[in-house]
Each structure stands twice: as structure tokens, then as C-alpha cells.
Structure of AraC family transcriptional regulator:
Amino acid sequence: MDIGEGIVMDNMLEAGAERDIDHKFTCSIEVSTQSFPSDNQFEIFRNAHVGVADLTFCKSADGSFPARLKVWMLGSMLVVSTVLPGKGYAHEWRHVKKAALDNWYLCLPVRPLTRAAGGQTLPHLRCLAKPFEVMVEDEGALSVFLPSDGFVPTSTLESLLHRKIEGALGHLLADYLVLLARSLADVTMAEVPYVVEATRNLIIACLAPSRDRLVDAHRPIGAVVLERAKRLINTRLADHSLTAEVICSELGVSRSRLYRLFEPLGGVAAYIRHERLVRTRAGISNSNDVRAIFHIAEEWGFDDPSAYSRAFRHEFGMTPKEAREVGWVRDVFHVQRENSLRDGGPLTLCQALRGVA
């Protein structure tokens, strides 16, 4: 995680929530087909969805279907992240004809930016008890299965069935689903109820908006705005004219709100400075980049060599020269846990849906 990303979930939690760093929340299902023979991969993926949807293999050059399914059980809510092989692969997804489950769910397709209008897809609302069929060629999907306990008024759900959640609230909800899926691995057990409540409030506010509901969803909305601001900053770091005013204009938020969102990170300027220092560190530690250290620093907006050196030492505990001499190895570990079939087979999505309260 980059600096401050750990506070994203804090923006979705009630103040004073107890943190228990020794008890991380873990996903309930994690199935990867990549560890199985190519001709068995789709069957593994299909079996994980038995009882929820009927899947038919449609297209693959070599018969393989490298995919990954992760399911997070959040009380009465399920968050499902699916990574699909994308271009050149396809399968047909159909709700089962005699559905035993009636959960409504939001589905956000994951597609290449060139295929998504405006660079972003929008969530659709579906119901497992309603007929639905689609050919899927996406790179993945994020889904949130809602509890069938009046989470959102049935009349509202019926009016939105199979429709995109469009407009500003649709884009807000899409950004939040991406943020939620990425953040769950860093949530502790103590935080889960607050994450569920925040997610509930935001979904209700987006599906059936009202002033009171938008107020209730204030924290998760703030988390999404913060994430958008961070994304904008990191795409414009080389722009020496990047300021808080520019960010406010781009995002359509007030300066005071932007400052409040970045306050836990030390402020907007501090965040921008940190990210630029990280970029210089990457250049300095790259043996293929033989430019003078100051030229690398200058590229990222540091015009004073002495001030840059002091800032670098304060941030990383060594001078830029020392970083170049010893080489900089960042401690970034990406651990992938592959599920193997156990006696009786892995837990399925259907079983997870039956198991939530």
C-alpha cells in the first residue's frame, strides 16, 4: 500500500473503532484455476458457481481458462472479486432456472479502459431469482450480494433491475466498489461491522438517494473522493504546476474539504512531496538510469539540491547518494495463495450465500 492508503478504510469507519492488528479479516473462498491442467480449468471455475449460475464454456484458443475467484463474507453481505482471462476467452453466464436463492446483487464489470466509455464501467443491479443471461468476455468483475432483509425497498430494486446505475452516483458507486475490494485484505475483524455499515449506507444512498441518506454515506463518499484525488495526483506528479487549487478544480470539491480529507496524511502538499520523493528514489536506485541525481530530482519538481537532499533523508533515512550507492530495495511482497482441492472440494459461492446471516 502507498502512504496513507491504510487510512482509506478509516474514512469509512466510525470514530474510535477498535483496531486489532493481530486478527486480520480473511476471504472465505479463494479459488484459482491456474494450478490445474488447462482442460480442467473451466470446470473448476464452473463448479465454484454451482447453485448460483449456470456457466457454459464458449471461447478459448487452447482450452484453458485461467481465472481467480475471491469471496468475502461480511455478515449478511458478500463481496465477490473475479479475475477472468479477458480477450480471447468467453463464457456464458445464466441465472439458474429454479433459483433457490433470491439475493439482489450489484455487478461491476472490469474491462480495458479502451472498451469502457469514459474509462470506467458502471454497476448493474441484478437478482438471482430473475432470469438473466449474458456472454462474458471481460477481464473480471466486482460484485456485492445484498441481504434479502429490506436492505433497500423492493420497489426501488425492481425499478432498477438489469439497469446500469448511471450519473454521478453510479460513478461514485463504481469507484467505491473498486476501493472496497482492494481494501478488504487490510481490514481487521474489529472493523468489519463498520465497513458493512458504511457500504450499506452508500449503496442505499446511490440506489435510492435522499438528503438524509447521503449524509449517512458521508464517510464512504469521502473515501472515494480521497482515492480519486490520490489517483489524479499520481498521474500528474511530473506537472510542476500541480497544486491543491488544480486538484479542487479537477474533482469539483472545495479546498476546505480536500484539506480535511488529506489531513491524516499530513496535508495535500505533504502527500504530493512524498509521492515525488518516491519517484526520485525509484530513478536513483535504477542502475539503468545514469543521470545525475539532481537531474532526476529536478524532473519531479525539486529545484533546490540541498532542500531535496534534506527532504529525502528525512523521508527515507539516508541521503540520495547513499541510496544510489547501496541500491534501494523496496519491501514489496505480493503473496498469492492458491487453493487446492480438498476432500469434498472447495466451498462454493452458493454455500457462502447460504451461510450469510
